[in-house]
Specification:
Blueprint (H helix, E strand, L loop, with lengths): L9 H18 L4 H26 L3 H82 L5 H7 L3 H146 L32 E4 L2 E4 L6 E4 L2 E4 L5 E3 L4 E8 L5 E10 L2 E10 L1 E2 L4 E3 L4 E4 L10 E8 L2 E3 L6
Antiparallel strand pairs: 1-4, 2-3, 4-12, 5-11, 6-7, 6-10, 7-8, 8-12, 9-11, 12-13
C-alpha cells in the first residue's frame, strides 16, 4: 500500500552515482563490442536506479532520513577509526622524538659542563705556569743575568762551585720545562675554548630540537585527542541514529498498518457499492427478460398456434471485461509516471509491500480530471491518503470499477454525477506523502488492480 512519496533524496542520488561510476569503470574497454557492453551496463544501472527511486518513493521522509543518518555515521566510522589510529601512531612517534631530544639535550649540556670544567682547569694550570715563569724572570732579573762564568769567579771552593753549577743547570731545565708547559697550556686553552663554543652550539641546537619535538608531540597529542573525540562523537551518533531508526521503523510499520486498514475500509465500501450495482443490474436484467418473455407470449397468443418458433432473442449478456485498456483516461495532462502498480521490497524494512496504484509526479496545483464518467461516492479526508475523491464508474464488462484520487492539495468535485474530464481537484502532498504527486488507484469490485489494464 502506498504510504507517500519522497523526493529524489541525496542518498538515492549518491547510490545511483555510485552504481553508474562503478559500472562504467568496469565497462570501459576498446572497440565497438565494448561500447555495446557499456550501453547494456548503463541500461542495467538505470533500471537499478529507477527501482531504487521507486522503492524510496514509498518510504516516509522521517524513516529515510533516519536510515540515511545511520548509513552516514556507519560510512564515516572506519575513516574516523583509521584517523585515530594514525593520530595515535604519530603521537607515539612524536613522543619518542621528544624523549630522544631530551636525552640529546642532557648529553649536550653534560658535554658543555665538562668542557667548561676542562677550560677552568686549563686556565688555572696556565695561571700557575705563568706565575712560575714570572718567578723565574724575577730571579733572572735579580741575578742580573749571572751566568756560569760569574758563578765560577765568585766561588773559590771547588765543591761549592760544582753544587752551584748543578743547581743552576737544574733551575735552567726547570725554567725550560715550565716555558714548554706554558706553551702547551696556551694551546690547550685555545682547544678548550673552541670545544666549549662547540658544545654551546650543540646545546643550543639540542634545545631548539627539544622545543620542536615538544611542539610536535603536543600537536600530535591534540590531533589524537580530536580524532578520538570525533570517533566517540560518531559512535554516539551511530547509537542515536540506530535508536531513531528503530523508532521510525516502528512508526513506518504503524503508518503502513493504518493505511492498510484505510484501504480495507475503502475496499469494503466499494465492494458494498459493487454488490448493490450488480444486484440492481441483475434486477434490471430479470425485468427486461420478463418483459421480453411477456412480449413473446403475447405475440404467440396473437398469432395462434404458430409452429415457426419464437421471433424473440435471448437477453443480451454483459459486455466482456475490458482487457485491452482504453476505458479510463489519464487523470493528469502533465507530469510523468514515477511509480507503477506492484509489489515492492522495502529498502529499509526489508519486506514486501503492495503499491496499490499508479503515481503521477507533477507540481502541486496541477489539475486532476475524472478518468471516466461516474458518480462521486466519497470526497474528503482519507487518512493516510490525504484529501481523497472516490468515483464509482458502475459495471464495466461485468465488473464494478471505481477510481480513487489521493493526496490532493484541494478537492473540487462534490458528491454525485461527474463526467469524463471534469475537474476533480489539484495535485498535492497531503496525508502520508512527502512530495507533490497524484496517487491514482483503480478498484475492481473494491479491490485494487493495476490501472494500466483500464487506461
Amino acid at each position: 500500500m502506498h504510504v507517500g512519496r519522497t523526493r529524489r533524496t541525496a542518498r538515492t542520488v549518491v547510490v545511483a552515482a555510485s552504481l553508474v561510476s562503478g559500472t562504467l569503470a568496469l565497462s570501459v574497454v576498446a572497440g565497438s563490442t565494448a561500447r555495446a557492453d557499456l550501453n547494456d551496463d548503463k541500461r542495467k544501472v538505470q533500471s537499478q536506479i529507477t527501482a531504487l527511486q521507486e522503492d524510496m518513493d514509498h518510504t516516509s521522509a522521517a524513516l529515510a532520513k533516519a536510515n540515511a543518518a545511520l548509513q552516514d555515521s556507519q560510512s564515516r566510522l572506519p575513516g574516523a577509526q583509521n584517523a585515530l589510529a594514525a593520530a595515535q601512531q604519530a603521537q607515539a612517534a612524536a613522543d619518542a622524538r621528544n624523549e630522544q631530544a631530551k636525552v640529546d639535550l642532557a648529553k649536550a649540556k653534560a658535554d658543555q659542563a665538562q668542557a667548561a670544567a676542562d677550560l677552568q682547569a686549563t686556565q688555572k694550570a696556565l695561571a700557575d705556569t705563568r706565575s712560575a715563569v714570572a718567578g723565574f724572570a724575577a730571579q733572572l732579573y735579580t741575578e742580573q743575568g749571572s751566568g756560569t762564568l760569574a758563578i765560577a769567579l765568585e766561588t773559590s771552593d771547588p765543591q761549592a762551585l760544582a753544587d752551584r753549577m748543578s743547581m743552576t743547570d737544574v733551575l735552567s731545565d726547570l725554567q725550560n720545562s715550565t716555558l714548554e708547559e706554558l706553551s702547551t697550556s696556551n694551546a690547550s686553552l685555545l682547544a678548550d675554548q673552541d670545544y666549549l663554543a662547540a658544545t654551546k652550539a650543540k646545546v643550543a641546537a639540542a634545545q631548539a630540537a627539544t622545543e620542536a619535538a615538544l611542539a610536535d608531540a603536543t600537536s600530535a597529542a591534540n590531533a589524537a585527542a580530536v580524532a578520538k573525540a570525533t570517533l566517540e562523537s560518531l559512535i554516539a551518533q551511530q547509537s542515536a541514529a540506530t535508536a531513531t531508526l528503530a523508532t521510525e521503523k516502528a512508526a513506518e510499520k504503524k503508518r503502513y498498518a493504518d493505511l492498510t486498514a484505510e484501504s480495507d475500509r475503502i475496499t469494503a465500501k466499494l465492494a458494498a457499492i459493487a454488490a448493490e450495482e450488480k444486484r440492481k443490474a441483475e434486477e434490471e436484467r430479470r425485468r427486461k427478460a420478463a418483459e421480453q418473455a411477456a412480449a413473446e407470449e403475447a405475440a404467440s397468443n396473437n398469432n395462434g398456434n404458430n409452429n415457426g418458433g419464437t421471433t424473440g432473442s435471448n437477453p443480451t449478456s454483459n459486455p466482456p471485461p475490458v482487457n485491452d485498456g482504453g476505458f479510463l483516461s489519464a487523470p493528469v495532462r502533465t507530469g510523468w509516471v514515477s511509480s507503477e502498480f506492484g509489489w515492492r521490497m522495502h529498502p529499509i524494512l526489508n519486506y514486501l509491500r503492495l503499491h496499490a496504484g499508479r503515481d503521477y509526479a507533477a507540481p502541486c496545483g496541477t489539475p486532476i480530471y475524472a478518468a471516466a464518467p461516474g458518480t462521486v461516492v466519497s470526497a474528503g479526508w482519507g487518512g493516510g491518503y490525504g484529501n481523497q475523491v472516490i468515483i464509482s464508474h458502475g459495471l464495466v464488462g461485468g465488473e464494478a470499477l471505481a477510481t480513487t484520487y489521493n493526496h490532493m492539495e484541494r478537492i473540487v468535485a462534490g458528491y454525485g454525477a461527474i463526467s469524463r474530464g471534469q475537474l476533480v481537484g489539484y495535485v498535492g502532498t497531503t496525508g502520508l506523502s512527502t512530495g507533490c504527486h497524484l496517487h491514482f488507484e483503480a478498484r475492481v469490485n473494491g479491490a485494487p488492480q493495476d490501472p494500466r489494464r483500464w487506461l
